[in-house]
Amino acid sequence: LLLVISVIISVFISNWVTKPLRVLHENISSIHFGQGNQKIEYNKQDEIGALVRQYNQKLEELAITAEQLAKSERESAWRDMAKQVAHEIKNPLTPMKLSIQQFVRVFDKEDPKSVEKLEKVASSLIEQIDGLSKIANEFSAFAKMPLPEKKEVDLYKTIESVISIFQQKDKIEFKFKKTRDDAIVFVDKDQILRVFNNLIKNAVQSISKEKKGEVEIEIIVKSNDFLISIKDNGRGISKEQKQKIFIPYFTTKTKGTGIGLPIAKKIIENHNGTITYESELNIGTTFFVQLPKHI
Which whole number is the average pLDDT over 16-39? Predict the structure, then answer.
């Protein structure tokens, strides 16, 4: 009887002694960098208390380090973007300057051709200024994305309205597969419309004029989300380009600004969704947009 009582008491005491250690173990194993980690409340002045104080102190240091790292990453991203914007703006400035200098040298009021040259130079400058204005506006739109004004939106009707615009393109066949009567999401209609405008436009522009183009769009239910796929048979994306496709101002098109996909990604993420893609060079590309269903 004494042995049994001794065992029970020893088990009770060991549990009582090791309980703070188990709590400490659980908290340490649940630490995640950059997330709000909970401190341990333990007020006794013993060896375990010293461990807990050290643990809580390291949590504070970890939180400060995470905040500094996040700030550094944001500053680095904005520095890179600023360099790209500066590069995009600087490119047309030199030819604009040369055009003006050349025109000033050859301008002659008595020469009838000077008026024609003036019109050409002015037209070229206006075109370049419009391009610079577009870059500035796109950068502003990306930097100051407005908060979404959400309401119920039917994805079928939204995508159909986009298809109707691009359906006039020759040699492009659209296939829109419908598996439901509707697909209701709670989103900002204008922002989501912008996303699908961009994705479908990219799909159309990726198909060469010599090729019979096909763009397949499908909406399926995946758990509590809608998964929208937009598949084309265009030129695809190379391995080198895949790492940069969502980087602002990176573009494979001669007339593109490279801001469409980054804005689309930001809009989808602001709506608690995801955007991914699969691509094979000279075969085609499929973009996947996942948005929560409106329940």
Answer: 66
